[in-house]
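Batch manifest, entry 17 of 40.
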Amino acid sequence: MKRYLKALATAAFLSVAMQGHAVADTIKVGVIAPFSGPFAIYGKQFQEAINVYVSQNGTKAGEHTVEFIYKDSGGPKPDVAKALAQELLIKDRVDYLAGFVFTPNALAVAPLLNKAKRPAVIFNAATSIITTKSEYFTRVSFTLWQTAVPLAKWAYEQGMRTVVTAVTDYAPGKDGEDAFKDTFEKLGGKVIDQIRMPLSTKDFSPFLQRIKDKAPDAIFGFLPAGPPTFAFVKAYNENDLKGSGIQFLGTGETDETNLKALGDSAIGITTSYHYSGSHDSDKNREFVGKLKEMYPDSVANLASVGAYDGTHVLYTMIAAAGKDAGKAMEAVKGLTWESPRGPVSIDPKTRHITQNIYIRKVAKDDNGMLINKEFQTIPNVPDLGLQQ
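Output type: structure tokens
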């Protein structure tokens, strides 16, 4: 009887051990993003780009099967993001986190990463300080310092001397405002007014009229991609700032998801950014082609390329380290690859992406479609905000 019980116990132990081994071979990634509400386009673009990467590279990273679990943050809601991260870490037992559209959401999750010792790949949130809040953060998107500094230099080189900044009143907006003003005024230009607009703003006409009354050479704007950017650019046109000779300088305000709706009135708007859906490279054509094949109604934009490259980083970390967070973070430091946006790398100190920044104008391609046409490249730009 004792031998029988011992054999039974041994069999049960082996069964549990085998189950544990099977679980160890599956790496879970929790993706936190808005899948509902006014910013739901981000979640859609994230998930589609992840699926594109998986279709091209398979479901395995090294010896590990990768499983994605999606959670809806609904927008810039740090309490919700923190609760979702806790659920993913404790209930779903994810090994990695990813996504994060908004800075407040990413910052809210940082203490949990430090406690749980889980890596997180930021697909979008663009305030410089984020990666300093946890050694487990790495970012594949951009920062406002990274895009605004080259734009300020370009504007001054074109003879612009007076600018009004108009930014959304939260951390990335402040970063963009500081970066542009600091760079532009060091060169000899003058920011004659600084406007911060609530994140909830829907009617931008009063702000645009205020800018028109100031009569600067240009406006530098920053708003989160989605409905706010569309409404702001629309108000710029409706208030005839262009006709008054006030140039529009921005970053992601002419996002590919907005271009068709903006129409020809957007032609000539100048932006400084890390990616255009029309970027001229074989890698980008491959990415855009596969995205169109799988999702005919989708367009490639900053969210798409952020999630696509973020998935590449996740696969690299998982293949090298599995569930070992320390090894995973070491694997990503100094990583280089060819992205649809161009050559990129992860700075080993900041864990933020180094990349080309492109000066672009809205124009029509050979098929009459509106695009963000790149006409100048500033190579290998780091996060300049962390150098201040």
